[in-house]
Amino acid sequence: MGEDGREAHSARVGSDDRGNDVHDDRGPVAAGPVVLVTKLRPPAVREGTLPRESLQRRLEDAHAHRLTLVAGPAGFGKTTLLATWAERRASRRPLAWVSLDAADNDPAVLWSHVIAALRAALPQLVTAADPGAAGAAPLTQAVLPRLMNDLSESEPVDLVFDDVHRVTGDSSRDSLAWVLDHAPATVHIVMSSRTEPRLPLPTLRARGELLELRLEDLRFDDAEATELLNIGLGLGLAPDDIHALVERTEGWPAGLYLAGLSMRNAPDRHAFVSTFGASSRHVLDYLVDEVLLAHDPDLQDLMLRSSILEQLSGPSCDEILGRSNSARDLRELARTNLFLVPLDDRDEWYRFHHLFGQLLQVELQRRMPESVPELHKRAASWHRSHGDVRAAIDHALDGEDFATAAELVQGCWPEFANAGHYQTTLGWLQRFPDPVFDADVRLLVVKAWVLSLCGQRADAAAVLNDVDRFSPYPSGKLPDGFSSIESSVTTLRALLPWGDIGTQLTDARRACELEPPESKWYPCAAWSVAAALYYQDHLDEADTWFDEAFTRAVVSAQWIVATSSLAYRSMIAGAAGRRDDQQLLAEQAADLAAGCGLDDVVGEAHSAAGLSLAARGAYDQALPLLARGVTVMRAWGQPTELIRSLADYAFGLAASGQADVATAALEEARAIADACVDPAALPQRLGHITDHLTDAVVGRPGLTDRETEIVGLLRDGLTEREIADRLYISFNTVHTHVRSIYKKLGVASRVDALNRAAQARQGT
Predict the structure, then answer these.
(1) Distance CA 393, CA 401 (A)
(2) CATH number of the domain that 726 lies in?
(3) 8: pLDDT confidence band, cut at 50, 70 and 90?
(4) Coil, strand or helix at 515
(5) Does residue 443 share a domain with residue 579?
(6) Which of 391, 429, 440, 731 has a Cα at 20 to 30 A from 337?
(7) Distance of alpha carbon 388 from alpha carbon 260, whole angstroms
(8) Rounded Cα gap, residues 630 and 684, in angstroms
(9) Are both 98 and 205 inside the same structural domain?
């Protein structure tokens, strides 16, 4: 399968029951990736928040545009503006909200949250789009087109991406651009960003499809500043003082607010205004000197030390900071400090305004640098015990607790791969210092797997060479469930033969020796044996191994291996002429793929279904499935499986009389086979299809047995209705066969069909 195809099968099916938690005696240690519901709602609009009516009026008809962009530096009220707008629209139009963060640089994380937000906003939305089931294929190839198609049939919805500037990874940014270009008219996209997003804005602007609120729009004017400072904060400033503050802060809302907080205790507010610095840096200095000092030492300590957390709650702060009553203090801070943002309706979870949080972290590092690593270690322990392995790893790395981080990564990588979160895992691996990384063969093995899953074949091979430096490998079972390092490396190589079938079979048999049958990885090893035998044309033995792989996979809930094994068994049955078995197994594979969300992963299920239909003459239904099988396998890029899927497609095309397209598919397959080290029996199979195609061109069109039988009955003068009665099948089935016969023979009437068939029998 793919440029890392089959190991995608292996890693995804290597998880425990497709993402269930794995425990040790300290609690959950490898919980699969989860959707954070706190990212899926706008922050609550607080009492006293300036509504900014002029901007709200501009947003009122925003849905008439494809994109609404609110762009400006930190502290200009972008999120607050959109949250107020969202609250006002709540009763009139569905709205899906996603607050973006660094984790969304993994496109699977990003779109898992987007789909969850859309489902919450549109309860009637039915979509099979699953970012976690895309494997290494770009989401823009299958997942996002499917989602856009489903949204085109839903009611209109506003889709808000808050803090787009936090998404810096190319894959995630490209996916946002793709959706913006392909979103249906039912979807109005809204984005807020501190920076200019890398999107086709000039094109949208030229088409009148872009509504923009920029820095000049977001600045406070004198009237808004008066409302904030005199009505909201009760400062009683003179109009000239307010105008001076607006000019010196250049209308920066956060700067005005900080200045207002600073003036509360100023004995001479006019004098304060006259000396107030104009630069943003000067304004920010007040945050530390005045805002923090306005609180008692305990609350200052809470704010500083909890700033390491992405999200805060009373229990987490109590345990991590070693204090009590954090929930009460957080509620009080949220009430009195606009820079602590509630994330739910129960006052349980909060986050700091990003700008405020960053400044607190700088101040924490200045005041008590020795405490920062220990705080991160405690945070890692708390998140680990509460099942949030992603946050646990991030904090362990931030706290330079590399032993804990390595243990967690080694244990959870299959769950994250299972959800398609390859970039997340690679990001963790890149954060380990080189000396730590190079000395830990287990981390190197994880890196080899994940690089393979990302299609980086050369890089993965280089890492495997580094792994070989540790041979003989240290003994002992690995956190991901492999019985040993040798077993993990051997299984990876067996699942990723890159066109060397002989070596694949050797590695696969060895992997089966290294993994006990009850291991969750054993089905992957058994599948590899079966696949190698299949490509060597040892079909009976391959069928036995595929059956074994399927049985073990079902027990271990390894649904990709199970689905693939059924599909290959269907193709083997078809090659043996067992049409009923072929059809049954193909239908079972298709049902399992659909039920487990694997349509975009297990391309052989589509190929098997297409071949089964082609064997019954239903070419109109077969060819789209065979083509889809090629598409999925092309995304994975595994040479032998891509050759097989192209060969299956070419066979269907040849049988249906589409010689030119069949020839092109065969030529591509031959070129790939020529580059393989050991393609086994695949060249011979391509030769058989070429012979079949040649026969079709010269007059022997490759009719199925049933079609040949129907031609004979047509020759006897029976009508289609009489043929249906004679064969005990429906009239519609007969009519479908007749249309297929006409197509293969290149004719449009019964007389021409009988004449053409007679010529074919004579070899002319």
Answers:
(1) 9
(2) 1.10.10.10
(3) very low
(4) coil
(5) no
(6) 391
(7) 39
(8) 20
(9) yes
Tokens of 517: 């049958």
Q: Using one digit for the tens of pLDDT, what is the confidence trace for 331-368?
A: 888 876 667 888 887 889 999 877 778 888 988 998 99
What is the maximal distance between C-alpha atoms in the chain? 111
Q: Mark whether 499 and 520 lie in a shared domain.
A: yes
Residue 214 Cα distances to 9, 78, 194, angstroms = 46, 10, 10
663 vs 560, 614, 625, 651, CA distance in Å? 31, 18, 18, 10
Q: Which domain holds residue 712?
A: 705-761
CATH of the domain at 49: 3.40.50.300
* 80 and 204 housed in the same domain: yes
Question: What gap in Å lies between CA 683 and CA 673, rounded to an integer?
Answer: 7
Distance in angstroms (rounded) separating the CA atoms of residues 250 and 269 = 19
DSSP string of 679-743, one letter each residue: -TTHHHHHHHHHHHHHHHHHT-----HHHHHHHHHHHTT--HHHHHHHHT--HHHHHHHHHHHHH
Q: How far is CA 620 from CA 356, 498, 627, in A?
A: 61, 33, 12
Q: In this structure, are 626 and 638 located in the same domain?
A: yes
Q: How many domains does the chain have?
A: 5
Query: What is the value of pTM for the model shown?
Result: 0.75
The Cα–Cα gap between 22 and 32 comes to 9
Rg (CA), the chain: 32
Give the dihedral of Cα atoms 172, 170, 437, 419; nearest 10 deg: 20
Please give the structure tokens belonging to residue 127.
């979509």
Q: Are residues 125 and 227 in the same domain?
A: no
pLDDT digits (tens, 9 = 90+) for 628-676: 999 989 877 789 999 999 999 999 998 887 888 999 999 999 999 999 9
Coil/strand/helix, residue 101: coil
Mark which of 492, 515, 549 sits at the end of a domain.
549
